[in-house]
Amino acid sequence: MKVLIVEDQTSISELIAINLIRMGYDCTVAHNGKIAADLIEENTYDLILLDIMLPEIDGYELIKYIEPMSTPVIFITAKGSLKDRVKGLHMGADDYIVKPFETEEMIARVESVLRRVGKGKTLFEIDNVKIDIIQRIVKKDDQPVLLTVKEFDLLVMLPSFFREFSIR
């Protein structure tokens, strides 16, 4: 999954990128709206995390540019008033996160939006264990692990399981 992070504060963009990379996402960072527009023109992304207050082109202008592409967008911004949140959602954002935010919640919101648009992760790799949610297969050291239907369902219903092991 390719994620574009559009955030002018380096410390925040790095925090977001590090945590999403740990979850298996391929992240690109743009520190202003102009660079983001160029990247969006040249590449395809599964999700865009977008700040509103950006140099050159702000997030409100950028989302108008993104909307025809049907790429899901989550605003991540310090603009937290009810009016701002409603405006962002009405402009086409799929979700809205107010800074400061908890990393775990941000990851959950990313996963939720991707699930809703049918782009959720279906293959997880944790050390030497691979889990394919679509084919319902678990392999350890490339050898199949036999699980009952209930065991497999429990395994994939525990997203915290994936976070805990992928971060270590």
Automatic annotation (TrEMBL):
Modification sites for 4-aspartylphosphate: D51
DNA-binding region: 121-168
Gene3D superfamilies xrefs: 3.40.50.2300
GO cellular component term, pick one: protein-DNA complex
Database matches in SUPFAM superfamilies: C-terminal effector domain of the bipartite response regulators (SSF46894), CheY-like (SSF52172)
A UniProt-annotated Pfam family: Response_reg
Keywords noted in UniProt: DNA-binding, Phosphoprotein, Transcription, Transcription regulation, Two-component regulatory system
Any one biological process term the GO annotation gives: regulation of DNA-templated transcription
Keyword Protein transport listed: no
Domain Response regulatory stretches: 2-114
OmpR/PhoB-type domain sequence ranges: 121-168
GO molecular function per UniProt: phosphorelay response regulator activity; transcription cis-regulatory region binding
Protein name (Swiss-Prot/TrEMBL): Response regulator transcription factor
Organism: Sedimentibacter hydroxybenzoicus DSM 7310
Lineage: Bacteria, Bacillati, Bacillota, Tissierellia, Sedimentibacter
